[in-house]
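Dear H.,

Thanks for agreeing to be a second pair of eyes. The structure we're designing against is below in token form, covering all 221 positions.
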């Protein structure tokens, strides 16, 4: 099993986001378990914040997956850019963090609240919820109004996370929250403790699912 490899690709070119993802995945690494490698897509934008960004990185992600040096792939962006193109290009399992995070949230609560980074992201996310057929289980989505780069300001980000999380809990009656950006990973446990509701980090959810698939495949060999 030690030879198995899960590659987590951050589709933006922000190495600080990749480092945060890597730290958040530390609890999922275990002795003799699959290697979990986090990469930055060097040619991606500094943050994926528009539909144009999503569409621009899709072919780059497909090219990366075609390199074929993983037992499972995780696309670490909440818009799941290029997910279906990548799945079409390989028989290796490919997981998107939005799909994985939302499906995990369905198992943790009845009414989901999503924390977006920007208001302009919400329409794109809502289209995806309808495509997944789960929009009726989402009580609301509210933005931090912080860019991917601004998420590096820990004090400002934390204050907005608490404020928006409370609105989702108290106004939208969400009993489980999904963090709508891979750059929020380091706040998951702290936010869950502060708000008293389950909080799902979608990258952890996707890698957890990938681990199950890779370990199961190794056991069958």
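And this is the sequence the design step returned. I haven't edited it by hand at all.
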């Amino acid at each position: 099993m030690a030879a198995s490899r899960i590659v987590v690709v951050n589709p933006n070119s922000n190495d600080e986001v990749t480092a945060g993802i890597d730290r958040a995945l530390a609890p999922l690494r275990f002795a003799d378990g699959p290697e979990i490698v986090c990469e930055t897509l060097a040619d991606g934008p500094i943050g994926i914040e528009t539909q144009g960004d999503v569409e621009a990185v899709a072919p780059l992600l497909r090219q990366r997956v075609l390199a074929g040096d993983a037992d499972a792939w995780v696309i670490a962006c909440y818009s799941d850019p290029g997910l279906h193109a990548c799945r079409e290009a390989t028989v290796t399992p490919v997981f998107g963090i939005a799909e994985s995070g939302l499906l995990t949230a369905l198992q943790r609560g009845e009414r989901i609240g999503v924390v977006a980074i920007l208001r302009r992201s919400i329409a794109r996310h809502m289209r995806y919820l309808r495509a997944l057929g789960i929009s009726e289980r989402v009580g609301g989505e509210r933005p931090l109004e912080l860019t991917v780069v601004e998420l590096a300001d820990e004090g400002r980000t934390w204050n907005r996370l608490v404020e928006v999380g409370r609105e989702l809990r108290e106004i939208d009656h969400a009993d489980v929250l999904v963090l709508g950006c891979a750059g929020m990973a380091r706040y998951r446990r702290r936010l869950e403790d502060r708000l008293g509701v389950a909080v799902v980090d979608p990258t952890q959810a996707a890698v957890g699912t990938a681990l199950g698939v890779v370990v199961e495949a190794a056991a069958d060999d």
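Two observations from my side: Strands lie at 5-10, 35-40, 72-75, 94-96, 112-116, 138-143, 176-179, 198-200. The chain has two domains: 5-96+203-220, 99-202.

Warmly,
E.
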